[in-house]
Design a protein that fits this description.
Distance between the termini: 41 Å
Mean pLDDT: 80
CATH class of the largest domain: Alpha Beta
Number of strands: 8
Helix content: 25-40%
CATH superfamily of the largest domain: Ribosome hibernation promotion factor-like
Shape: globular
Largest sheet: 4 strands, mixed
Low-confidence stretches: 105-111, 120-134
Number of domains: 2
């Protein structure tokens, strides 16, 4: 694996670089084709924060992208935490991909917001008739972040793989089968659901 290590206004010692090469480099055993890693170290300037050393690791290759950002009390601990988080993501990906070929267990899936969108249920499990969730009838979640990005054209199976590698529970793309905006999402039974947008 080709590993690029950089520090944003922080020094990265030779022993930390050696640990990154050894530990991050071993992650390519989980998913074939992950042949590049970008590792960026930063430091939180607030002295009241104990875990001030931050590392962001992005694994790339064969159309895949897996990312983890963690903080530790020192750079070595941050690297270990990143490896642990990435290992969990990659193991989860392998497990879910293997379950694709098994019969669904038909477990209840309506807890997921996108599943509710399909079934017509509100977030509190009641009929989607305009009744607000919770005790406050005026309650409404606030939009706190906006993102703009270009939708990629790809097969639905590739979209599921991309969703899992990014550790998201949904992914928006353009299906190469319909040439329409499409959403894949994770169901509670470990399988994936698909919503086609008629636009």
């Amino acid at each position: 694996m080709d590993i690029t290590i950089s520090g944003r206004k922080v020094d990265v010692s030779d022993d930390v670089r050696a640990a990154v090469d050894r530990k991050i480099g071993a992650l390519d055993r989980f998913v074939p084709g992950l042949d590049r890693a970008e590792v960026v170290f930063r430091e939180e300037k607030n002295p009241r924060i104990a875990a001030r050393e931050q590392v962001e690791v992005t694994l790339l290759g064969n159309g895949h992208q897996v990312r983890a950002t963690v903080s530790g009390t020192d750079q070595h601990q941050a690297v270990d935490l990143a490896v642990g988080k990435l290992s969990k993501q990659l193991r989860k990906l392998k497990t879910r991909l293997s379950r694709r070929h098994r019969p669904n267990q038909h477990r209840e899936e309506t807890h997921h917001p996108l599943a509710r969108l399909e079934s017509g249920l509100a977030d509190d499990g009641t009929a989607d008739d305009g009744t607000a969730a919770g005790d406050d009838p005026d309650w409404m979640p606030k939009i706190v972040r906006r993102k703009t990005f270009d939708l990629e054209l790809m097969p639905p199976d590739d979209a599921v793989a991309r969703m899992l590698l990014l550790d998201h529970d949904f992914f928006l793309f353009v299906s190469d089968e319909t040439n329409k905006p499409t959403v894949v999402y994770l169901r509670s039974d470990g399988a994936a659901g698909l919503i086609e947008i008629d636009a």
